Amino acid sequence: MTIDQSKISTSITPFAMIHEHSAFRQEQEILFTMHTVFRVGEITPPTSNNRLWEVQLTITDESDPQLAGLTNHIKQEIDGSGWHRMGKLMLKVG
Question: What residues pair up with 43 in beta bridges, in sequence order?
């Protein structure tokens, strides 16, 4: 996982390194807010005896042009307000 702190605002996309407070000391845990968006990079298939895929994630910032374009496109397609808009979005994403 890649987190370039110079490209994100922690006031908008806060995260916390919580490995010092974790029950599992050997793990490097990071806690993100629910609205955090990541870009999926390289996807590595599992090794012969492992069923876990490895996915490289890069945190995005609020000024990411591709994310802004996608957000605007979705807003144009999903018009309306409140629960009606939420329902249309849920139908769109499946």
Answer: 55
